Amino acid sequence: MRPQPLVALTALLAAAALAAPSSAAAGRTKPPTDLSSAPASWTDTRVPTFELYGQVEQPRTARDEAHLSATEWGLRYVAGAGDNDVVVTEEAGRLVFHDRAVSRWIAVPLGCERVPVGIGRAVSCAVPVTPTGEVFLEMWPRLGADTVDTSALPSRYRTWALTDAGRDVVRTGAGRDFVNTAADQDEAHGGAGDDWIRMGGGGNVAYGDDGDDKLVGGQQGDTLYGGEGTDSVGGLAGDDVLHGGAGDDVLAGKVGYDTAYREGADKLRNIDVVY
């Protein structure tokens, strides 16, 4: 199943906001399939734009299955329509993907090995010890009430999470991360790093946390917290509640009756109520 139109469109906008190259196809290298010989391919800091556009055929996965593949940017996790609960950590120089809702990995790349866990299934993957570039972790849980947690990862890892319908929770780590949710009431936490969080339909809650973050609401009333740093916090349709937090932030409303909580020298645009 390909991403919903909302996901594809907003991902395109996010890629532009992160200054993606005008021609993502230029200089593309063949995606590695063997992580034990792939570190040189991971020094490229280009944004994985084509993946976000939904122009890559996705694997067929049953409700309790997951698929892990290597790309020229890092690793891509794709799950079925179950309520996935996946945590990604770095342990002894390896990346560990543990999904408590999965009963089978239908594919993992060379350089990864299945490891025993009490609940669900886990995979441990080789990664470069000191990569010169950033490693992208594309997380596609798809349908269901999913939880994606990469919050323990250091800044060299960039999480790019695209969720689908279902009440999802996404927590990212210290890297420059991107989160795009879809339908239903979702929750996103950016963690440290300069993050871009775009919420879909539903009354959502998003936290930029530390870093200079960009947060945008969806089609219903959202509550957005910029957190530490110089943040841009914007509502779209619906009655939104916008918090800048510490730092000189920009709080912008749009359609709806929007409320802003100002701290310091925050700039306000199209706000109906100010505290």
Structural commentary:
The protein is mostly beta strands. The protein has one domain (5-198). 6% of the residues lie in helices and 35% in strands. The protein is built from 2 helices and 23 strands. It has helices spanning 5-17, 49-52; strands spanning 65-70, 74-79, 85-91, 94-99, 104-107, 112-115, 121-126, 135-142, 147-149, 157-163, 169-171, 178-180, 187-189, 196-198, 205-207, 214-216, 223-225, 232-234, 241-243, 250-252, 259-261, 267-269, 273-274. It has a 12-stranded mixed β-sheet with strand order 6-7-4-3-9-11-13-15-17-19-21-23, with no helix packed on it. It has an 11-stranded mixed β-sheet with strand order 5-1-2-8-10-12-14-16-18-20-22, with helices on one face. The protein is elongated, with a radius of gyration of 18 Å. Residues 1-33 and 36-45 have low confidence and may be disordered.
* Strand content bin: 25-35%
What average pLDDT do the residues reach?
Answer: 82
Distance between the termini: 44 Å
Rg value: 18 Å
Largest sheet: 12 strands, mixed
Query: Could you estimate the helical fraction of the residues in percent?
Result: under 10%
**Widest sheet: strand ordering:** 6-7-4-3-9-11-13-15-17-19-21-23
List the helices and strands in order. HHEEEEEEEEEEEEEEEEEEEEEEE
Number of helices: 2
> Which structural class do you get from the secondary structure elements?
mainly beta
Give the domain tally: 1
- Could you tell me the number of beta strands? 23
Shape: elongated
Uncertain runs with pLDDT below 50, 5 residues or more? 1-33, 36-45
